[in-house]
Amino acid sequence: MSDRKRVTGPEKSVAPLLETGSVPAFIFNPDRRHDGRDVNHLRPVFMKSGVVRQANGSAYLEAGKLKVACAVYGPRQNQRTKISATKGSLGCDFKFSPFSGGRRRSYMKDEQEREYSLVLEQALSPAVRLDLIPKSTVDIFVQVLESDGSAACLAAAITCASLALADAGIEMLDAVAACSAGYFESTVCLDPTGEEEAHEGGSLVLSYMPSLNEVTHVIQSGETSTATTVKALELCVDACSQIHAVMQQSLIANV
Amino acid sequence: MISVSERDYITKGVDRSVRADGRARLDFRDLNLETGMITQASGSCRVTLEGGTDVLVGVKVEVGSIEPDAEAAADADDIDDDGGARTAGGGGPGTDDTTGSSGGGTHARNRGRISCTVACSPSATRVFDPRDVESMCNEYSQLLNRVLNSAHGGVDLAALCIVPGSTCWVLNVDALVLDYGGGLLDAIFAATRGALHNTRIPRATVEQTDGRVEFEIEDEETEIVAGWEDVPLTVSMSKIGYRHIVDPTPLEELCSSARLTVAVNRRGNLCALQKGGEGGIEPSLLAEMVQTAKQLGQTLLSRHDTLLAAEARRIAKGVDPTGFR
Predict the structure, then answer these.
(1) CATH number of the domain to which B32 belongs
(2) Coiled-coil regions in this chain (chain A) (predicted)?
(3) Number of domains in chain B
(4) Which domain holds residue A109?
């Protein structure tokens, strides 16, 4: 819309519509999902740190189709003049690549990306020792190369960013692992794919510091009962511990 | 900015369930509510809290087109074949007027939609850094959008559809923060629910003449927003020290390390859960806070319903609203 230099296409475009019936109907089976997992299993996840040479720290994460890269710069001098300078700050920037999903995304940050940037900041702040870096800022850039479910993307971004922070040698209390869950009525299904996300009744993203036993962020949408939510929280906490183990391995492998 | 001793004073008070204004940890402030003071809007509501929070929500109803890339696959089986004729002429003002670059939202093809924004009036933002205000407003509008546009957000989106696959009502919910005195998000949701209760949508009659679908809008006859009573209210809890409180004042908000917002509806179900702030919460405390919020939400909802019923009686009697006098 406002970026006419790079984009010469029409102002508004839509993804092609598929003819009804050409796509097989989606059936959710809790015991055997489309990729062969059951509801309590995460997608196999691959992580690698130190992928961007220019950055102070960086990481790459892949889970199924989902691909996320993150680079960390800093700590460097705070550009913003803030009155309170006893603590450092995190500057988070979350971006979907234009080609990452079904619909083409614009170069400009939309509301969802701005919201995810804020969530990222809130999820990572409790872990980083910001009191040790007063008057400075750590910039975190997350780029989603391919997305497969927006909730899973957000969770992967948090995990990946925390790995990159560790790679940059920024002091943290603990690494933050994040995990998403989808609600299919009262069934809680871990790590939903994009296809499952289109059919779920709600979703939950939880980020957690396993060694400290502290939840750093939680965001849920969709109508659920309290019991289901509490069950999903427990499931996600367990799953985050699994992801945390993979993070530790990949950090050790990079030493 | 808050001094160390003031922070210590508030934290210790919260630990003993005594707060500066005499409330206990889980007490709300009195909420004043008035609807229908903006006559140009389709619906409006102003909520004020004792400590100074002042939120005005206006609803503007517009005719919009259903976006073609609406999630067609999601409910492909309940769209009936509408004969290829998608020309919707007739009396709708601004039929193709979609301002909606509604970020990431998916709309089914036979549903209307709600577009929400939260803005901070310059008179209220003096105390804040403009960039923090912007990100806060964005966070709140995204939450409102997510809650109201979901299948369980309360408002019957299918009832907002005029011609399936082409035209629908768009409810523009715009919240304006006039003054800030803590507990902003809860006030915004209370005002939104009030404004939706107050909203009247003109009646649209659809006529089908040889393949052409036309509709007419009658401004005289209006309908209420179906399902406003199922719109959730939020309960925001701030964690101060090892305890949590509801409805914080600005000073208490400065002491709190984390905020948990829980949206609760009439059926006692959770509609959204969101953490804010820069601290962490233990999983056991999180579960406890969710349970507390659910109970508090029910009392809040019944109190809100009483206030709205009183407003409806006032309007029925023809008494003018006090407004801003």
Answers:
(1) 3.30.230.70
(2) none
(3) 1
(4) 45-254
Contacts of B72 in chain A (CB under 8 A): 17-18, 20
ipTM exceeding 0.85?
no
> How many domains are there within chain A?
1
Distances A15 to A150, B98, B164, B261 between C-alpha atoms, Å: 18, 18, 20, 35
pLDDT in tens, B43-100: 999 999 988 889 999 999 998 888 765 443 333 333 333 333 333 333 333 333 333 3
| B310 in contact with A, Cβ within 8 Å | no
In a domain, A82, yes or no: yes
- Which of B80, B131, B185, B286 would best serve as a mutation to test chain A binding (most A beta carbons within 10 A)? B286
CA A108/CA A93 separation, integer angstroms: 12
- Mark which residues 114-143 of B lie under 8 Å from A by CB: 129, 131, 135, 138-139, 141-142
For residue A125, give the CATH number of its domain. 3.30.230.70
Residue A216 lies in a domain: yes
Q: Return the biggest CA–CA distance within chain B.
A: 77
- Does any domain span residue A49? yes
Given a contact cutoff of 8 angstroms between Cβ atoms, the answer to whether A137 and A72 are in contact is no
- Across the interface, which of B76, B79, B104 has its CB nearest the CB of A110? B104
Cis peptide before A75 (omega within 30 of 0): yes
Which residues of chain A are under the pLDDT cut of 70?
Answer: 1-5, 7-9, 11-13, 80-85
